[in-house]
Amino acid sequence: MSKDRELQMGMRCVKYMIFVANFMFMLVGLLLISIGYTIKAIYTDFDAFLSNHNYKASDLAIAVGFIILVVALFGCAGAIRESVLLVNLYALLLLGIVILEITISIIAYKSRNHLEETLSEDMLFSMNYYTSDTGYIWDATQYSLHCCGVHGPRDWDKYNNADYNLTVIENLQDSTDSTSPVPNGQGAYHVPDSCCKNNKCQNISSLYKRGCLPKIHYIISQSALLLGVGAMCVTFIQLLGATFAHLLARSIRKLKTQIEVERTIRRQQLYESLSKSNTLEKVSPVLYVPESSEA
């Protein structure tokens, strides 16, 4: 009886281990969702400068995070039911999630290749629509990052017309100033007010002279790197989880087998004891012969 109790305690410990593992996986899922939404929010700030494929990695990270939460609940259900099939299926689902996380890392890494070139093209193209959809994005970007244009303030010169409502700043800067983006004497700057400090283009000293491309490229590149590294770290944890779940399934199978063996042995012992007791208690039949009466 004590041995059976030990087996029951072992099974209970296995179930608790699965619950702890699934709690960790739920935290990992929430972490991946948080990273995905953070990167997506960063990308949204530069929505006008990014192509749709830049969002694939963050969207996939969010989806995988929710899948991990569902799979963790599935693992808890398998532990409660003490089902070897469900726990093994849980391990296979974790391996599937690992494949998705590796995909996230690959997409995030590939998005960094040729990022500066494509970002430059998209930013220059978006300047054509400054007065409509991308106007507020350009103003917010230039004001918050303290930059102007893609490569510099001169990017706005070709948009010098009434539709763009640009501010004119006379180029009176000394040509000996090494920070000047162009040599002295190339005419006035035509820029939005967001290209200047405090949104007031009063003179050349208030103009932001650096382009926005290097800063935006750094932010997006580092965000993609963060997403890729985060996905790889989660992948490592999920691989351990899949291995752990498989070992737990084997433990459950072994414990169940031991319990069944113990029950079979006790059943056989019970039958044997009953059989012996019946043999000992067996009574030989007595033949009764009536005595003959004398007449």
UniProtKB/TrEMBL annotation:
Localization terms from the record: Membrane
Keywords: Membrane, Transmembrane, Transmembrane helix
Protein name as annotated: Tetraspanin
Residues of the signal peptide: none
UniProt topology in membrane: Multi-pass membrane protein
GO cellular component, one term: plasma membrane
Species of the source: Diabrotica balteata
Lineage top rank: taxon: Eukaryota
InterPro entries: Tetraspanin/Peripherin, Tetraspanin_animals, Tetraspanin_CS, Tetraspanin_EC2_sf
Residue runs in coiled coils: none
Entry's transmembrane regions: 16-40, 60-80, 87-109, 224-249
Predominant place of localization: membrane
Family named by the database record: Belongs to the tetraspanin (TM4SF) family.
